[in-house]
């Protein structure tokens, strides 16, 4: 048989085996002893304390059993005791602290410090993968006091470093790559490349030799399924402890390494008549060109923009939690400052410092580098939603609008039409000034058009009856086959056939992918940007729920439990990001632009404005120094000026200004060839790499058994303490107490809410659902004024459909076919008369079942029961006493005796189990002794 089916290749993320750490110390060394949750596998890390400046550590890469680790601890303890046997506090092996992971190592002007996670909290679950938030950390100085060399500036650096609050908005996971999107994590790895050792089994390029993934598919002897455990390489842009891991990442086993992200993570449960749909919102803040509001504007010479945040919205049907077999959907958008060399003068204490372009960039190299990076990460199209003001009496924000528009016009000259950057400008602040403003409605139209172009990611194929809804014109639903064929159509670049094969095998599961990104910005990328991202997220959520079979149409109404929950998540998302970048919470919230905010909120807006102004004026400089120190932008050196004496950090973030850079390509080609050849797919997903790959026999092996890691059957928990009972719930937290409609998509009309519907005058014009209005309501403004406002406040460039298309409801015509659709219309199949071969096969199956049951002869005879009388005679039934075995009688006698006389002495086997349990508890408590530690 030459025609054999290819195997089903399944990739499982490798779970870190070090989730608990105990730190012990002696005079000469620190010992980090890490174990898994069950404490059956251990690793040991030794750190030398005799070196005052350098970091010397030893990782033997060996795994120890529980008995071996107890023996090792006792041996270390005995070897460090005094000869007389009298043990003092400074002698022997002493436990310092228990922890859950290593953040990293840092050195200023003296020796190294060790930073550990001492407290964590579960904040989200993606399938069976748990995401933790750091609640507390500890910073321990490694060198012994006897060899310490003091420096006068050391304590100031330590205090500055500790002002970074690692207890707020820093996240990690032991099994899920939090630095990558769900779509990237679901993609198959194409190369094995270790970023720490720079060793690769395949060239990290697309279009050259056949890679190992394609070689698997060319094997002759197929297996039923191949399962592999993999460790993916993280996206370094979102690893905030990257600088802290550099001293040890090449020397330590990967299980010791934790990649920590900064931003926001939130999760909610939308209960749809008992069916739970989890919504997870993840915001990843970039560590490139990071800083505070007025000190980090625009972009650096590499195209890294300020306040860059990637926001991912994941929807998960909790019926199946496996990432491979479950139904997941995700949508990614981002925010970031206007790319370019611009800043604001903060030397004068004014509320709005003047915006100025500080450096001429005639070829828009900075902007081109930024969009090249976006194409590499997300693919095409890139849709820009610019919310900066366009028309002002005195130019302020409009300078940025002109700069952005000119840059997009210039860069699009060198791209084909189907890959060009699409630009949409919407003066959100100006439109909101009107009494009858419909800002959310206009954002809803923009969001709908943008989501139709980028699409959403789905791990499985949509249900049959949802395909026509999600793909009315072939725009939202982008299958792998359609996307592969679209690469060569209309392109003037010859594409290597191998690239097409790689893209076809990009995802091992059926479904659709998102290609491109919606990039939203205003001046600060805070208030207006967060409202616009909520509008986009709300539109995308409708398509996600529709694809998962929950909604019939991709429309969500305001003031429903689902949208109120999503609005609260985006409010928390915006507040967190605003505190990180601007120093205060949001000033103008979603309710402000919906015109539903109470008048009492104006006082809070004033307080937030003052808080933001105070933070930007008096504390931003110190915060910027701290961020530069934490991220390794500035490294203290002996004999060099300290960071607090530097007048500016411009040359730290723009290395090109102090060194010569040679251009690798002409100025008209602002993109990379490898990126362009993969469009509209993202190069990072087509050429995904992993650092380690291990073939496993089955998914129940401990290193990949995510089900066992999540449920932890070895622990005793109360149901109330399980995370699923603690997550925000639509019924418990948002549904009214007295209601007859339990749908989370039903509109809840309450006093003071839904102002758009109750105050509407013209009820003949239909509005899209994004406005929060019913289909029979309308704006207070007329149609003609709406057109005028659109021409003034909104500008769309470089799009295939610049005209905004509102979401219209289809005409409702009552007919028999609409009430009772056929099976083909709903499920895509139609019942047919079975074939003769199928009938023969079914008869064989029935006969096999009858022969295997061994019925008695009389069982096959049909009996006809005839009632002889109206009141039949009562026939007594005789029951024989059952025979009880001697073992059962003995067990019952022991049970009765325990009730009368108490318990019996335990068996030797039970005593052995209890002794083993006692030794384990002594080891956990950290009590070093001869028998246990």
Structural notes for this entry:
Strand 14 and strand 15 (275-285) form a beta hairpin. This protein has 30 helices and 26 strands. It has a domain at 182-696. The radius of gyration is 33 Å and the shape is globular. Mean pLDDT is 80; it is low at 197-210, 212-222, 472-509, 751-792 and 799-810. The chain is α+β, with helices and mostly antiparallel strands.
Which key features would you list for this structure?
933 residues, alpha+beta, 14-stranded mixed β-sheet, 5-stranded mixed β-sheet, 31% helix, 18% strand
Can you describe this structure in just a few lines?
This protein has about 950 residues and is an alpha+beta fold.
Q: What is the total tally of β strands?
A: 26
Strand content: 15-25%
The main sheet comes to:
14 strands, mixed
Shape: globular
Contiguous low-pLDDT stretches (5 residues minimum) are 197-210, 212-222, 472-509, 751-792, 799-810
Average the pLDDT over all residues and give the rounded result.
Answer: 80
Q: Which bin fits the share of residues in helices? A: 25-40%
Number of H- or I-type helical stretches: 30
Radius of gyration: 33 Å
Category from helices, strands and their pairing: alpha+beta
Distance from N terminus to C terminus (CA atoms, Å) equals: 60 Å
């Amino acid at each position: 048989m030459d025609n054999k089916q290819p195997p089903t290749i399944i990739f499982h993320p490798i779970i870190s085996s070090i989730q608990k750490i105990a730190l012990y110390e002696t005079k000469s060394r620190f010992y980090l002893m890490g174990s898994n949750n069950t404490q059956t596998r251990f690793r040991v890390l030794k750190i030398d304390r005799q070196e005052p400046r350098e970091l010397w550590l030893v990782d033997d890469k060996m795994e120890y059993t529980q008995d071996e680790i107890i023996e090792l601890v006792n041996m270390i303890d005995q070897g460090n005791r005094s000869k007389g046997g009298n043990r003092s506090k400074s002698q022997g092996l002493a436990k310092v602290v228990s922890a859950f992971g290593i953040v990293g190592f840092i050195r200023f002007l003296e020796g190294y410090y060790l930073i550990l996670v001492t407290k964590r909290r579960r904040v989200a679950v993606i399938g069976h993968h748990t995401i933790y938030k750091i609640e507390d950390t500890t910073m321990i100085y490694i060198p012994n006091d006897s060899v310490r060399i003091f420096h006068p500036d050391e304590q100031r650096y330590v205090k500055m470093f500790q002002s970074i609050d690692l207890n707020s908005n820093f996240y990690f996971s032991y099994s899920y790559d939090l630095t990558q999107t769900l779509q990237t994590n679901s993609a198959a790895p194409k190369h094995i490349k270790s970023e720490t050792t720079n060793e690769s089994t395949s060239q990290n390029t697309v279009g050259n030799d056949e890679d190992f993934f394609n070689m698997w598919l060319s094997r002759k002897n197929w297996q039923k399924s191949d399962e592999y455990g993999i460790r993916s390489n993280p996206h370094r842009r979102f690893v905030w402890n990257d600088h802290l891991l550099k001293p040890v990442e090449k020397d330590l086993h990967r299980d010791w390494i934790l990649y920590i992200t900064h931003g926001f993570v939130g999760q909610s449960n939308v209960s749809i008549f008992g069916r739970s749909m989890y919504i997870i919102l993840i915001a990843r803040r970039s560590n490139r060109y990071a800083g505070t509001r007025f000190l980090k504007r625009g972009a650096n010479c590499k195209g890294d923009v300020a306040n860059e945040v990637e926001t991912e919205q994941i929807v998960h049907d909790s019926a199946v939690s496996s990432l491979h077999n479950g139904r997941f959907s995700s949508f990614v958008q981002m925010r970031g400052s206007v790319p370019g060399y611009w800043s604001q003068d903060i030397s004068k204490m004014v509320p709005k410092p003047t915006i100025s372009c500080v450096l001429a960039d005639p070829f828009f190299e900075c902007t081109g580098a930024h969009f090249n990076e976006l194409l590499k990460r997300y693919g095409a199209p890139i849709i820009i939603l610019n919310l900066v003001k366009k028309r002002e009496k005195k130019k302020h924000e409009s300078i940025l609008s002109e700069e952005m528009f000119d840059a997009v016009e210039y860069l699009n000259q060198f791209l084909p039409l189907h890959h060009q950057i699409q630009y949409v400008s919407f003066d959100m602040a100006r439109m909101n000034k009107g009494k009858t403003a419909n800002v959310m409605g206009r954002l809803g139209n923009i969001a709908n058009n943008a989501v139709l172009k980028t699409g959403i990611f789905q791990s499985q194929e949509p249900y049959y009856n949802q395909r026509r809804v999600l793909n009315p014109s072939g725009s939202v639903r982008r299958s792998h086959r359609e996307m592969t064929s679209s690469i060569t159509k209309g392109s003037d670049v010859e594409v290597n056939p191998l690239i097409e094969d790689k893209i076809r095998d990009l995802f091992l599961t059926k479904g659709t992918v998102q290609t491109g990104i919606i990039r939203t910005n205003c001046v600060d990328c805070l208030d207006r940007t967060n409202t616009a991202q909520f509008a986009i997220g709300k539109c995308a959520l409708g398509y996600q729920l529709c694809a998962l079979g929950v909604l019939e149409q991709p429309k969500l109404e305001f003031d429903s439990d689902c949208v109120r929950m999503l609005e609260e998540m985006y409010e928390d998302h915006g507040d967190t990001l605003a505190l990180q970048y601007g120093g205060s919470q949001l000033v103008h919230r979603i309710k402000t632009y919906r015109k539903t905010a109470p008048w009492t909120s104006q006082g809070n807006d004033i307080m937030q404005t003052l808080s933001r102004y105070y933070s930007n004026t008096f504390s931003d400089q110190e915060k910027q120094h701290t961020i530069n120190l934490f991220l390794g932008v500035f490294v203290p050196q002996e004999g060099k000026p300290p960071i607090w004496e530097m007048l500016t950090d411009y040359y730290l973030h723009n290395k090109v200004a102090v060194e010569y850079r040679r251009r690798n390509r002409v100025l008209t080609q602002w993109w990379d060839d490898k990126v362009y050849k993969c469009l509209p797919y993202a190069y990072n997903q087509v050429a995904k790499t992993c650092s380690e790959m291990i073939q496993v026999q089955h998914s129940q092996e401990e290193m990949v058994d995510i089900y066992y890691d999540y449920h932890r059957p070895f622990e005793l928990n109360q149901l109330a303490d399980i995370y699923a009972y603690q997550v925000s719930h639509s019924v418990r937290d948002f549904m009214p107490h007295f209601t007859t409609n339990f749908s989370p998509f039903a509109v809840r009309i309450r006093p003071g809410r839904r102002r758009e519907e109750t105050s509407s005058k013209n009820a003949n014009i239909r509005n899209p659902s994004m406005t929060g209005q019913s289909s029979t309501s309308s704006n207070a403004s007329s149609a003609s004024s709406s057109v005028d406002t659109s021409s003034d406040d909104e500008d769309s460039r470089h799009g295939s459909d610049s005209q905004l298309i509102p979401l219209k409801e289809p005409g409702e015509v009552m007919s028999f076919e609409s009430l009772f659709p056929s099976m083909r219309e709903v499920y895509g199949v139609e019942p047919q008369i079975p074939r003769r071969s199928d009938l023969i096969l079914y008869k064989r199956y029935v006969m096999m079942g009858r022969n295997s049951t061994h019925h008695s002869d009389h069982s096959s005879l049909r009996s006809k029961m005839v009632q002889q009388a109206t009141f039949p005679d009562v026939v007594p039934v005789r029951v024989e006493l059952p025979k009880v075995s001697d073992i059962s009688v003995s067990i019952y006698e022991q049970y009765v005796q325990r009730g009368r006389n108490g318990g019996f002495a335990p068996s030797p086997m039970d005593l052995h189990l209890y002794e083993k349990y006692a030794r384990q508890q002594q080891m956990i408590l950290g009590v070093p002794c001869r028998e246990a530690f």
